[in-house]
Amino acid sequence: MDSVTTDDGVPSGPRLPGLVQALLTLSAPAAVFPAAARRYGVPFKLDLMPRGRTVVAVADPADVKDVFAGSPSVFHAGKGNELLRPLLGEHSLLLQDGDEHARARRLLAPAFGRREIEGYRSLVEEVTTEQLDRWPRSGRVRAHILFNELTLEVILRVVFGVTDSARLDRIRPIVARAVDAGPVVMIGMGIMPLRRFRPWSRQVRDLATIHAFLGEEIEATRRDPALSGRRDLLALLVRASAQDAQGLSDQELRDQLMTLVAAGHETTATAMAWSVLELARHPGIQDRCVSEIAAGGTEYLDAVLKESLRLHPVVPMVMRELQEPATVGGRTYPRGMTISPSIILAHRAPAAYPAPKEFDPGRFLGDVPTPTTWLPFGGGARRCIGASFAMMEGEVILRQVLERYRLDRVGSGHEWPRARNVTLYPWRRARVELRPR
């Protein structure tokens, strides 16, 4: 369906006030994007916060390719992610652009190389075993809550290594609460007067506590006589900064660590929650995974993870703000426009995925998904730096869960996606019935 174009050449879209559109888009993107696509065609525009931001949603593979292949100096992702600034900090990789982003990514990249990720595997396996030992042997659970606890423990151990358990005990619930911010809190944090009132004042206090904790960890790591032998991410980043003339300052390190902790556990926990919901709804697929695991394979399990991320993308869209006029899909958009590849719409395109509403891991067997039709980690120069780590972690966790438990659905097993910061988690926190194997 071709979209209608307004007199200024911009696609048409809803005419609701910008604040209303922002709240609806952040709260229920899984409903807003398909509804707008049906009403206005694709691409369509949304008027979002901050005031005056016009976002054009695209989904056609050719349009997505234009965005991801576009020059990073023109397609700025940092400005597109402005809503995350109060949570992640000024120097977060997700908020940087241009030379600043390239420098930070160069310093962070070695920590996410193939060898390093395989080195983390044993730690992820160890933490997963410890956490699953605390799960009930059987009964109904809200899997998303359990996975959040598990993945937060993984990322804290991976980022900080073996550290004072009492300090981690103190910071763990504060991190969990800060990351749990909903759309109203996320939007309100950008309005300074609101920060004096609850719930924004509590978010401000929580972030200050986390920042103080991170600062103490950075200082302790810099002074650690055993620094050269440590393999945790903080140690790798501190060593890289010390060896590089353009190394990260303490504040830059703090913001990058905040990004790793906040984004590195919530997204994986949510992906796991959607995965177990689908496995509980499809016992035949679950049995095939269990048989493959028993035989020492992971190919089908990997396909299950990819299909879950396709059907239930954790992040609904990618944002790029144009620094100069640019052409996407044959249309030239003006400077200041934000172009947004819609992950939800791209993952539901019948041309790329026949019967797109069905859960079918077979789509990904033997095929590498194309970066313009499967984009849960974004794409181009801004593709998530931790994508390979997330897939490894997901495979380890899901394998251990299926080795211990039979997953049965609760009711229909369907749960509507609900917004939490900028992620979409199952409305009822992924209710499943656990039975021991």
Describe the overall structure:
Keywords: Heme, Iron, Metal-binding, Monooxygenase, Oxidoreductase. This is Cytochrome P450. It comes from Dietzia natronolimnaea. Heme binds at residue 384. Its cofactor is heme. The protein is of the alpha+beta class and 437 residues long. It has a single domain, classed as Orthogonal Bundle (Cytochrome p450), CATH 1.10.630.10. Helices cover 51% and strands 11% of the residues. It has 17 helices and 12 strands. The protein has helices at residues 18-27, 29-40, 61-68, 77-80, 85-88, 98-108, 114-132, 143-160, 165-179, 183-188, 200-222, 233-243, 250-281, 283-294, 299-311, 343-347, 387-404, and strands at 44-48, 53-58, 75-76, 139-142, 320-322, 326-328, 331-333, 338-341, 405-409, 417-420, 423-426, 431-436. Strands 1-2-8-5-3 form a 5-stranded mixed sheet. Strands 4-12-9 form a 3-stranded antiparallel sheet. A hairpin with a 2-residue loop joins strand 6 and strand 7. Helix 1 (18-27) packs across helix 2. It starts with 17 loop residues before the first helix and ends with a strand.
